[in-house]
Amino acid sequence: MSEAAKPAASTAPVASAPPATPAPVAAAAPAAAPVPGAPKPVIAFEDFAKLDLRVAKIISCEPHPKADKLWKLQVDDGSGTPRQLCAGVKEYYTPEQMVGRSIIIVANLAPKVIRGEESRGMLLAASDVPKDAAAADPAAKRQVILLKPDGDLPPGSIVS
Q1: Please, what are the domains in the chain?
Q2: pTM listed for this prediction
Q3: Is 54 exposed, middle or buried (0-12, 13-18, 19+ CB in 10 A)?
């Protein structure tokens, strides 16, 4: 091919593509409502180690004067002084089923006044249906089981 037949190189500036516009940023979706029974956030071992879990024996059980679903319990936690707990298990256990039972409590939970009665700890229980799911669906039958030692341990025994 002769030099004359070759196309001339263009000296015109090459048009560049327009600068890319950033993709629109999607607005943050509203936080999803918690799923009943969904796992809770992971905590550090050090946070779990702060819990003082103890064996306690229920020495009395009476209705909470201002709450239909609560028992007012006196428990022996091994300290020599009865400890009062308010427990929301009234629809699952009678006083006769509660008194004399060994349970597991969170002994170092900050005291909280619940409808005029001070609760100085919390008993531990397991359930097959989360409380919030049972409240949302009246047809849901919920089973609640108190956690207890597998053997006979004195009140105040450490749970680890």
Answers
A1: 45-151 (2.40.50.140)
A2: 0.74
A3: buried
